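Before relying on records like the one below, remember that each one covers exactly one chain. Contacts with other chains, cofactors or solvent are not represented anywhere in the record.
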Amino acid sequence: MNKNSWFVVVILAVSAVLLTIGIVRKVKSLKSPQQQVIAVIPKGAANMWWEVVHKGAEKAAKEAGYRITWNGPEVETDREKQIQCVEDALIKQSAAVVLGPNDFKALARSVEKIHARKIPCVIIDSPVDTEKYDSFAGTDNFRGGAEAAKIIGRKLNGKGNVILVRYIQNSASTDARGDGFVQTLKKEFPEIRIIAEQHTQGTIEDARQRTVDMLTKHSNANAVFAVNHPSSVGAYKALQNEKLAGKICFVAFDSDPVLLEGVGKGEVEAIIAQNPFEIGYQGVKLAVALLKHQKVERNRPVASMIVRKDNLAQMKRDYPEALGL
């Protein structure tokens, strides 16, 4: 065999080895990575509250030896984008899906599609209009709204006028907070009236503008309750703009450094603070348990907390991640 022939043989042999290695790697990439990937799909990826959820989800995944993908719409009003994120998770053959539905009805079909593929599905934060999921982790939102009503009711000595700053319609978690607030006032403080309420459209600025509008039209308001992070921050800014911060009782739902500063100043009566870090952590932890074929509870409640001026320092020290610090 001449030199040229040997050269050809060597080249062919090396090519065969490289091809084999490439095929093996390709097969492994098709089989193993997505078996270890949990798709976490938030209501709105740009929201600070959901970034804390992200941290909790990352911690749970790391502890269990899994990875997560974090993919969701920029704003919580974008139902179509969130539906597409679910489709992407299915196309990529994610091992499990952890979903915070941004619309009670619109995401039901997506959840049912996950179920049909026999992929474990954990719902976090906000319910969805189907029973075809494996577990739920989140706050008792109705109870949180009821707690806000009791704080305002006691502060007003059972008499007065209240403005309710709601959130996007069909966001089940925030609807439940508003319902808990309304029903508790009606039952326990019948002489307190809700004189105005509006649904905001998902941004702090929209909440600010709508709250200013309600405050302008209803100068006899004694209190304000806002049902989530953007509506609470927006409502607080409205009270500051109108020189009413500290003069009108204000209860916020969800924490933010701005709201915590308001508690310290006496301009925010209380914050009903969820624990977004724990919601993300428990959501992924449930998904991992399902992947290991372990039995999990249908509902895993995550306790909320009440932040007031008298416990502010302790809460900031003990729960910095939950408070968004």
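The CA atoms of residues 90 and 114 lie 7 Å apart.
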